[in-house]
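Q: How do we represent a protein-ligand complex in a form that can be generated token by token?
A: Start from the inputs.
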Amino acid sequence: MKKILLQLDGDRVPSVFDAITAYDAGADVLLQHGGVEVREVRDLVHGAMFTRGVGDLKNSAVFIGGTDVGRGEAMLREVGYAFFGPLRVSVMLDANGCNTTATAAVVKILSAGDLSGKKVVILAGTGPVGQRAAGLLAKEGAEVTLTSRTVERAEAVCVALGERFGVKIAPAACSDTGDARYVLEGAHAVLCAGAAGVPLVSEAIWRNHPTLRVLADVNAVPPLGVEGSEVTWSGKEIDGKKLFGAIGIGDFKMKVHRRCIAKLFEQNDLVLDAEEILALAKELAE
Ligand code: NAP
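Then emit the structure tokens for the protein with NAP bound:
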């Protein structure tokens, strides 16, 4: 029986990246839908649920993508409402690569050692990647601080993350690399999660920093989030610190993405969101 992936994408043209990754991960057929509205999700999912017997439903699955992560989250909720009883298919949310990128970064940071009680700063953490990484790192026991250019935005995001992940995250304002010096005081690790091409930590700050041991950056577009680093670094050791660049993290993210897609076809009731994808990423890293 063919493995069929229903690709629901909020953008007008469904992501080519997600499609190729799905084929590489073992999907036989992709049913691609672009410009999907949240209200259209239920009927599309019913088409996947009602066409095969319960024992065969593991061969059908749903992938939610698109650049609008908020819409992707609403679509995931709608997929859940469409299911009943054993009539369900596995589903994964990775709008804009948010979950696979955040979990890959979190696993890389964790590879440098336990974070319990340690201060971890997510710079420019109000985007989809930073928010997920912040929630997941806090669940790992880190004392997480999340920054924005405006403290109000950081506060609002931290409240939302408290509700979503059941964790406490400290908000802070950080507008430039000068502010970063203060926010990073006492920090053990930092994740630069800013928009593409936004520099966040200067080399002068991190090279001589007395407590920083891990620096990770998901921005691959120059100038990088961590000045003086290279995108391909994956645990590069400098001055007693480990550095991870966007490609160093991105290579692992691709493995995580492919593993998740393959996993969708092993059972018919998986829901792969941030926490579940982190668990798979940790397994892969072992
Ligand atoms: P995003 O939403 O585009 O940006 C994150 C935050 O950066 C924004 O919420 C904003 O925070 C801050 N920001 C935006 N412009 C800024 C500026 N000019 N100066 C300072 N701060 C600025 O980010 P994302 O979608 O979460 O992605 C985060 C990073 O991961 C990006 O660099 C992206 O390219 C990369 N990414 C990589 C992959 C991959 O597979 N390798 C996948 C997805 C994303 P405030 O407005 O609150 O200050």
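The first strand starts at residue 4 and ends at 9. The pocket of NAP is lined by residues 96-97, 101, 124, 126-130, 148-149, 153, 193-196, 198, 218-219, 246, 250, 253 (CB under 6 Å).
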